[in-house]
Design goal:
about 270 residues, alpha/beta, Rossmann fold, about 40% helix, globular
């Protein structure tokens, strides 16, 4: 049985751990060549070696998402390693906790640079690469995809997570804007908004927070990063060939669940 991403080439940022690593692993399992990128050089290189000891299908690259030169070099390194790029996953993110009046300009800039600007710059570079390839094929498009990993908090407002909510909402709108702009070139751009996923923005293992989240989730459990990875595989594959500009929520139903009141109110 053919694998869903056989011989496709993907870049995944934020790939040293968590959702980014899970997406990269699922892509590799489905036959893709994968460039893992992260600012944590030791971790990302170790994960790349563990995923593919021979180093023929997976590579690692240190990329600080706040540095334009690193972003440019990531694209160049991927092309050097694998010749072309078919899929881009922007999964790098920072939480940036704090209420609006307590945050300083540096925290604001970092949240936007990491969560939004890095995706903007990489998507531009990726799109220009794809467009050149399409032009070389006399205008014939080929399957290619961008996936931006945001969060369900992009649709809500919590004072103590102001920068996360704001930047993820911006990333979702970036997804929609690029989807419209690039559709004519055959480039699909979609988003995944995880929520209640173990280890991602939910208290770093605090048992009380986990207990509260499980109680608020209709499926009665936290999600796993590999489940987000499975959604990414679908969006990157031809199973999603007519899907673009969409943000898929992966949260076990929590965002649509209105809990019953404990007692009647007037």
């Amino acid at each position: 049985m053919a694998k869903l991403l056989e011989n496709r080439v993907a870049i995944v940022t934020g790939a040293a751990r968590g959702v980014g690593l899970a997406i990269a692993s699922r892509f590799h399992d489905e036959g893709a060549f994968v460039m893992l990128a992260d600012a944590d050089e030791d971790s990302v290189m170790a994960e790349a070696r563990e995923m593919d000891p021979d180093g023929t299908r997976v590579a690692g690259f240190r990329c600080d998402p706040m540095q334009r030169l690193d972003i440019n070099n990531l694209m160049a390194a991927t092309l050097d390693a694998f010749d072309h790029i078919d899929i881009l996953v922007n999964a790098v993110s920072v939480e940036a906790p704090g209420e609006p009046l307590d945050l300083d300009e540096a925290a604001f800039d970092k949240a936007l640079d990491v969560n939004v600007k890095s995706a903007f710059l990489l998507t531009q570079l990726f799109a220009r690469h794809v467009i050149r390839r399409v032009e070389e094929r006399d205008g014939e498009p080929f399957p290619c995809s961008v996936i931006n990993v945001s969060a369900v908090s992009g649709e809500r407002s919590r004072p103590d997570r102001f920068l996360l909510s704001m930047s993820m909402a911006g990333l979702d709108q970036l997804t929609r804007g690029f989807a419209v702009s690039l559709a004519g070139w055959g480039i699909r751009v979609n988003g995944i908004a995880p929520g209640s996923v173990a280890g991602r923005f939910i208290g770093k293992g605090d048992p009380e927070i986990r207990k509260t989240l499980v109680a608020r989730t209709p499926m009665g459990r936290l999600g796993e990063t590999m489940e987000v990875g499975g959604v990414a595989v679908m969006l990157a594959s031809e199973l999603a060939s007519y899907i673009t500009g969409q943000i898929l929520t992966v949260d076990g139903g929590r965002s649509i669940y209105e809990r019953p009141l404990d007692s009647p109110t007037e």
